[in-house]
Structure formats: structure tokens, C-alpha cells
């Protein structure tokens, strides 16, 4: 399967103490084994670095630690999708049409990147919000499954 992971999934997969670590790690395990093809927006890589390097973990992850995690667990296993400058105005127009602003711009930018691909799943732990932001992609949007073996259609 071709799966797109957002920042919430990447962060959870990298932190054993994260409340969503188990399902996120299950999704990444399938990608690491080559059972699924992993995709993420280029922005998700930057966001993951930002979140991991500022979270109050014990011990504290310094930027070099975060880079090591990304180099081992994320970067070699994902194809990153970058947006072009002409992708941004339609996303902003879409948000205005939906009557929302603020940080939802980043969610919709991830969805715009996902829309450039033929995907089987879009994994996020913000699935209800994302389905509202992009009804056309709603059938693909879900949380990662709790088990690496439970990947049948939903």
C-alpha cells in the first residue's frame, strides 16, 4: 500500500512514551519492511524535527539526537513531497471558503501534498479534523492501525 504519514504519526513513532506510539510504530514498521511505501510532505520532516527538538522529553533530545532519529527511522524510508509556490494560494482560498484559519493551514498543506499522489491511506491522529478540511480525501484519512497485520480495507 501507499501510505502518507503526517507529523503526528512521525512524532509518535519516534517517541516510545508517546500515547500513540504503538499504532504509529506499527505503520512505520510496515514501511521499514517494505510492506508499504511511505510518503510524507517535506514540511512534515521539518515539523517533526521542530517538535522532537523542543519537546520536554527525559532525557532532553538535542538537535543532534533528533537528526540521528530522523536519519535512522524516517529519512531513508520515506519519499517526501514538496509543494510548489503555486500550491499555497488555493490552500488559503480553500480555508477561507471553509471559514477557518490559524494552524489549519498546515494541515491543509499536508493534504495538498498528499493530493499529489495516488494513495491508499493518509495516516494522521487528527483524522476527524482532516476529513472536515478535505471531504474529497476523507475516505483515505484514518489513524494508523494498532497492528502491523491488520491492514485490510476500511
How does the overall form come out from the CA principal axes? Answer: globular
- Count the domains: 1
Number of strands: 5
The helix content, as a percent range, equals 40-55%
Strand order of the largest sheet: 3-2-1-4-5
Q: Characterize the biggest β-sheet.
A: 5 strands, parallel
Estimated structural class: alpha/beta
> Which H/E pattern describes the elements?
EHHEHHEHHEHE
Q: Under the CATH scheme, which architecture would be assigned?
A: 3-Layer(aba) Sandwich
User: Under CATH, the topology is which?
Assistant: Rossmann fold
Which range does the strand content fall in?
5-15%
Instruction: Name the CATH class.
Output: Alpha Beta
Q: Total helix count?
A: 7
CATH superfamily: 5'-nuclease
Written overview of the protein:
This protein is 48% helix and 12% strand. By secondary structure, it is of the alpha/beta class. It has helices spanning 7-14, 21-32, 42-54, 63-74, 88-98, 104-114, 127-133; strands spanning 2-5, 37-41, 78-81, 121-123, 141-142. The protein has one domain: Rossmann fold (3-Layer(aba) Sandwich). The protein has a 5-stranded parallel β-sheet with strand order 3-2-1-4-5. The chain is globular.
Descriptive keywords:
154 residues, 5 strands, alpha/beta, disordered C terminus, Rossmann fold
Amino acid at each position: 500500500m501507499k501510505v502518507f504519514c503526517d507529523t503526528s504519526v512521525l512524532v509518535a513513532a519516534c517517541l516510545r512514551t508517546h500515547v500513540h506510539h504503538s499504532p504509529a510504530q506499527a505503520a512505520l514498521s510496515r514501511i521499514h519492511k517494505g510492506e508499504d511505501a511511505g510518503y510524507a510532505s517535506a514540511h512534515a520532516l521539518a515539523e517533526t524535527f521542530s517538535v522532537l527538538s523542543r519537546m520536554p522529553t527525559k532525557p532532553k533530545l538535542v538537535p543532534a539526537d533528533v537528526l540521528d532519529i530522523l536519519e535512522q527511522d524516517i529519512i531513508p524510508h520515506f519519499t517526501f513531497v514538496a509543494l510548489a509556490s503555486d500550491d499555497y494560494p488555493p490552500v488559503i482560498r480553500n480555508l477561507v471558503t471553509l471559514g477557518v484559519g490559524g494552524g489549519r493551514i498546515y494541515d491543509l498543506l499536508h493534504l495538498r501534498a498528499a493530493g499529489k499522489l495516488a494513495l491508499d491511506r493518509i495516516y494522521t491522529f487528527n483524522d476527524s479534523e482532516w476529513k472536515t478540511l478535505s471531504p474529497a480525501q476523507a475516505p483515505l484519512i484514518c489513524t494508523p492501525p494498532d497492528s502491523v497485520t491488520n491492514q485490510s480495507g476500511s
